[in-house]
Amino acid sequence: MSRTVMIVDDALFMRNVLRGIVVEKGYIVVAEAASGIETMKNLHTHQPDIILLDIILPDSNGLDLLQSITGSYPKSKVVVCSAIGQEQVIQKALDLGAKAFIQKPFKPEKVIEVLESLEP
Amino acid sequence: MDMSQYRDLFVSESRTHLAAFNGLIVNLEERPDDKAAIDEIFRHAHSLKGMAATMMYEPIAHLAHIMEDLLSRVRSGEASFVASLADLLLESSDALSGMVSQVESAGEAIPDDANLLERLSAFDFAAGKCLPQVFSEESDENIPVQQQQPAHQFRQTDSFKSIRIRTETLDHLVNITGELITNRHRLAECIRQSGAPDMDEPLNQLSGLLRELRNVVFKARLVPFAFIAERFPRLVRDLARKQGKEITFHLDGKNIELDRGILEEISESLVHILRNAVDHGMEMPGERVAAGKTIGGDIRLSVVRDKDHVEIIIADNGRGMDPERLKLKAVEKGLVTLEQAGLLTPQESLMLVCTPGFSTAETVSDISGRGVGMDAVRSAVHSLGGILTIHSEAGLGSRIVLRLPITVSIIHALIVKSGILEIAFPINVVSRTLELTREDIIDQAGKKIIELDGVYVPVRSLNRLLGQPVAAGLAADLVPAIVCEIGGTLIAFIADRLCGQHEIFVRPLGPPLSSLRGLSGATLTGDGRVVFVVDAASLA
After folding, report:
1. Contacts by B353-359, CB closer than 8 A, 24 or more apart
2. A67 — contact with chain B (CB < 8 Å)?
3. Is A32 at the interface with chain B, CB within 8 A?
4. Do residues B475 and B437 touch, judged by C-beta distance below 8 A?
5. If both were cysteines, with which of A37, A55, B322, B353 could A82 make a disulfide (CB 3.0 to 4.6 Å apart)?
6. A109 at the B interface (CB within 8 A)?
7. CB contact under 8 A, B13 and A108
């Protein structure tokens, strides 16, 4: 069965690019969100297998959002996807329950490689 | 993966980011302690960098990255937001805009001059003029989760729900809809003449469908005022800084929607009015203080929806205009005679600034002394079927109001008969219609006036204005009059007959008719006759 994905990024451009990459590999994008509030709403409705999460959003601190997600929906696997490459942010995200980190800009293969590496 | 499929989206999103970025920088200059604004500015630079890097537009990503670096130092509280940083960031934003345009036209971003990159990299916070620093010690984690959604974001969240359409296609749709409405009138006329039975029902249905089509087509053309307004804060800021004036710009109602064509037509006029407000309306700080006012002045642009109209109001609390001085100037320039000037109301005197050849500026500044004048602004407003009014009080400021229809081309009009001509008055300029007896018309020193609710209103004969024979009727005969409100004053036009209100499709007049004074367009009636649409303001 295809795994479901939610894409969280405030840029429509980024969401479209990511959707293009994952759909090609047979993932199903069940929801997209551009803000923290939208994320929590969609999460409740769709409970996706995987969440691609941008750390910088207009209405919330990405790490706080990550904590709410992993706290309320432990079954959804969060892949943090952001251009911030500082070690401490990556470590903090992993500590908060993120399964992996993709740094922007990314190559499509990198995104797929990370997604494939997640345990079902 | 072919990234070129995302190019258009990249261009449009980048522009949204840059426009918001510029607006926020200008805001931040006024409130340098606004931490949420810094976060947001940072986020725009950051998003742009990420997008550009994904598209492999290295020059854009690189420039955005350096900007982001500078901003992150402000964000962390390490440095404060200084005025010279604002200048540099705005300059960088302009450079990014240029590169985005290159991407749009050529498909690649060409590196910007190295000089800018160098200045950014070498920017010294301590050397700039410092604005008050009021950053708190709070860390990022303390940002409230539910901040207000920024008002500038119009981006859709679901890309499947909207598509892009060329504006030509939308214009074409309006034209076809207009022709259909004209055709319906013709069809109705044919049916009426042939006396064909049972045609009422299908005709009514057709009318209903056409109305619906018209509404949908117009709705598709509506865009928020923000579409043209995003450059205004920057414009006011730059002009004010150049002249050493302190001005806060406020923008209200930028989400109100207007027809794209109207916005396009009116955009330059608004720039002109704003420039006037900064150049001539606003005093220098010293002058303001001497007059007992605050050092900084305000310019407020508000957009207000009123049924089928939108009012765009540009108000300032600068020095205002003195009607007496305007009159004097107009006489000096030979635009009106001393006698004529004496008869003008204060309201009419203010409108003198819209007379071609009138400029009250003591010295012509390099900015607003050129290009369009207020006369051009007024004609632009009139040609859209709108009205321009000016209010001002010496010492307190000015308020310029543009009352515009929300849509163009298809308008409601009152058709009247004058001699052999049929004339259409756009319904938005008609404040009421009356039936007068000849006794109601008072002759005052050769000027004809009527009294209307205690106000004296000048009367003009349409037949005289349009070169039609003037019938000599009996004193008790009723004559119809159309009272129009023009620039805040009323004026009554006497016609031969009122023919009723119709929805008409206005077509522009081609040369040589377009040079005729008092006409703004024409339409065809059901039986193919031409009805001219009048511009009441220039007719009076």
Report:
1. B353/B321, B353/B326, B353/B390, B354/B378, B354/B388, B354/B390, B355/B330, B357/B333, B358/B329, B358/B330, B358/B333
2. no
3. yes
4. yes
5. A55
6. no
7. no
- The answer, yes or no, to whether residue B115 has pLDDT greater than 90, is no
**Predicted pLDDT at B314:** 96
Residue of B1, B149, B158 lying closest to A59 (CB–CB): B149
Check pLDDT > 70 for residue A102.
yes
**HEC sequence for B289-347:** HHCCCCCCEEEEEEEEEECCEEEEEEEECCCCCCHHHHHHHHHHCCCCCHHHHHHCCHH
Average pLDDT value for residue range B257-267: 85
For the stretch B3-33, pLDDT in tens is: 888 888 888 889 989 988 998 998 888 888 8
Do A34 and B150 make contact, defined as CB atoms within 8 angstroms?
no
What is the rounded CA–CA span in Å between residue B522 and residue B423?
9
Which residue among A34, A36, A56 sits closest to B145, beta carbon to beta carbon? A36
Q: Search chain B and give the residue with CA nearest A39.
A: B157
Q: What is the pTM of this model?
A: 0.53
At B124, the amino acid letter reads D
Asked if residues B11 and B99 have their Cβ atoms less than 8 Å apart, the reply is no
Closest residue on chain B to A12 (Cα): B157
Distance CA(B50)–CA(B60), nearest Å, equals 10
Residue B527 CA, distance from chain mean position:
36
Spatial distance between the Cα atoms of B466 and B468, rounded to a whole number of angstroms:
6
ipTM higher than the 0.90 cut: no
Query: How far, in Å, CA of B347 to CA of B454, rounded?
Result: 18
